[in-house]
Write a structure and sequence with these properties.
By secondary structure, this protein is an alpha+beta fold. The chain has helices at 13-25, 41-44, 46-76, 93-119, 137-153, 160-172, 175-178, 237-244, 259-264; strands spanning 82-85, 89-92, 203-205, 222-227, 246-250, 269-273, 285-287, 292-294, 301-303, 309-312, 321-322, 324-326, 332-334.
Length: 350
């Protein structure tokens, strides 16, 4: 007699067990084997649930405080302030505070959401059958019902402390981006409208670091200058030179077309801002035959013999001119600051 013909009750115990297991595995309606749900302490003890609720709310409140700190950092710390912070060394106080506060604001929102989900939202696992990709009306209704059930299980309606603090944190975080608008224009101090140039400031050659004299500037040459008193190792050098950098060009007086340019020059020596009026790139390409100067970034071209007006490219207006003269020592000096703001700007010139 083959093994197939032996009655099941006469089989060894282990064979009978194996046979039964195969039968269960072949049953498509058998229990998939999810472990029994074990309730958390928050599910059975309302005091523990309240503690979790307060923890989540505290994290959301910390996010709101950090967001306010992010905004306050723009007011408290100047751009050039350097501080020593162990173990990072000497860092920018503004950058460090911005990174720290924004990081805390975002982290505490995420940590609060995770703690809320793990301790207060339902953690019951549910097995569902596979469905076709196309959703039937019944499925859509079920999804909406499941969403409503999920919203109910999240306890968002009952846990008002969590709900209110979460909304507060989410409402404040986007405000951190609003303060970035500060860098799009001048502050009340009008820092972008003024430079270090003033009456009596000598023009310093940026190559020799010596005062410029008229005989140092040859016809057709291009020289770069900065204001007297600005040291290259100064902590705010980059900030100041970005506004005060000059191009010094000597043109035959009879070749200067613009009347004001001729009056503001000295024996054909003219001084214009080196900062392009498109996006602020430094201009450095000069063509002495045409007196045109070219910005290498986007090819804005200015005619330095005609008030530095734009003749090509995306720049919106002419380069500002600095009125210059000669002091008692025979050195070139400024006769005031630029009358127009240098570089790119949101304002329109009158």
């Amino acid at each position: 007699m083959s093994s197939q013909e032996i009655p099941e009750e006469n089989l060894p115990a282990e064979q009978g067990t194996a046979h039964t297991a195969v039968g269960v595995a072949d049953d498509p309606f058998a229990d998939p084997g999810l472990p029994a749900h074990k309730p958390r302490i928050q599910d059975i003890d309302e005091r523990a649930a309240k503690r979790s609720e307060r923890t989540v709310a505290l994290l959301f409140v910390l996010s709101m405080v950090a967001t306010v700190g992010f905004i306050a950092s723009y007011v408290i710390f100047p751009v050039d302030k350097i501080v020593y912070i162990w173990p990072f060394g000497h860092v920018s106080a503004l950058n460090f505070s911005l990174g720290l506060t924004l990081g805390v604001a975002l982290f505490t929102i995420g940590a609060g959401a995770v703690h809320w989900a793990r301790t207060l939202m339902s953690d019951v696992e549910v097995a569902d059958d596979r469905h076709a990709i196309a959703a039937e009306p019944e499925v859509k209704a079920k999804v909406l019902a499941d969403f409503a059930a999920g919203a109910e299980e999240s306890a968002l309606g009952r846990r008002k402390l969590i709900r209110n603090t979460m909304f507060g944190a989410l409402a404040l975080v986007p405000l951190s981006g609003v303060v970035l608008l500060r860098d799009l224009g001048p502050l009340p101090e009008k820092k972008l409208r003024n430079t270090l140039w003033a009456k009596g400031k000598q023009l310093i050659n940026m190559n020799t670091m010596e005062p410029l004299r008229p005989e140092d500037v040859a016809v057709g040459s291009l020289t770069f200058a900065m204001p007297e008193g600005l040291e290259e190792d100064a902590h705010d050098f980059q900030t100041q030179i970005a506004k005060a950098a000059l191009m010094i060009i000597r043109i035959q007086p009879e070749n200067i077309k613009d009347k004001r340019e001729r009056e503001w020059a000295h024996e054909g020596i003219v001084a214009f801002s080196k900062i392009c009026t498109h996006v602020g790139c430094p201009i450095s390409l000069y063509e002495q035959q045409t007196h045109h100067v070219l910005c290498p970034c986007h090819q804005s071209t200015f005619d330095l013999s005609d008030g530095a007006r734009v003749i090509f490219g995306p720049a919106g207006h002419a380069l500002p001119q600095l009125r210059i003269g000669v002091n008692a020592e025979g050195n070139l000096e400024a006769l005031g600051d630029f009358e127009e703001p240098v570089g790119p700007a949101f304002w329109e010139r009158g």
